[in-house]
Amino acid sequence: KDSNVMPDEMILCNIVSACGRTGNTSYNRAIYEFLKENDVRMDTHLLTSLVTMYAGAGCMDMAMEFYMKMSVRSLFISTAMVSRFSKAGRLEEARDVFDQMEKKDLVCWTTMITGYAESDHPREALRVFEEMCRSGIKPDEIAICSVISACANLGALDKAKWIHDYTGL
Cα–Cα distances in Å, from 74 out to 56, 82, 117, 136, 154? Predict the structure, then answer.
């Protein structure tokens, strides 16, 4: 900062990644202030690094701010946002991100199912599982474990057996 040399996006990505790995949230604040003060142009790589850093630190509002600035949101980063919001107990925001995704793979569907199942919303986990099956995505063992856990929380043993038989796993 004192040298009046402006780092490029690549250097900023490396700095953001390094700060994210430290887990020190004061670095996160300093980076945010630097970006604002210097009106830094943010490309997809820098935005991805910022989202990852803030989400990893549990600063979901900041992560969402940068996520929303992304013109193209990868399946990976969107699934990570669903996961982090779910882990923070912010299922409505997790579902909003999930619903806005144009393409969803098995990992993304399973992340949303698991988020509901682990947050004591088993009925919603089952609804998402049914949506996934209707969309043509075939569940794997991880998705089945989450959905059977949701069935157990509901006391719906017959539904769990049906899911097990349906999937053949």
Answer: 17, 12, 25, 21, 34
Number of C-beta neighbours around residue 127 at 10 A = 14
98 vs 39, which has greater pLDDT?
98
The average confidence (pLDDT) of the chain is 89
| d(C-alpha 157, C-alpha 43), whole Å | 49
Please indicate, yes or no, whether the overall pTM of this predicted structure exceeds 0.85: no
Distances (CA, A) of 126 to 1, 39, 44, 59: 52, 45, 34, 29
Q: Note whether 117 and 147 are within 8 A (CB).
A: yes
pLDDT bin (cut points 50, 70, 90) of residue 169 is low
- Give residue 79's pLDDT band: very low, low, confident or very high (50, 70, 90): very high
Minimal CA–CA distance to 122: which of 151, 85, 79, 80? Answer: 151
In three-state secondary structure terms, 7 is: coil
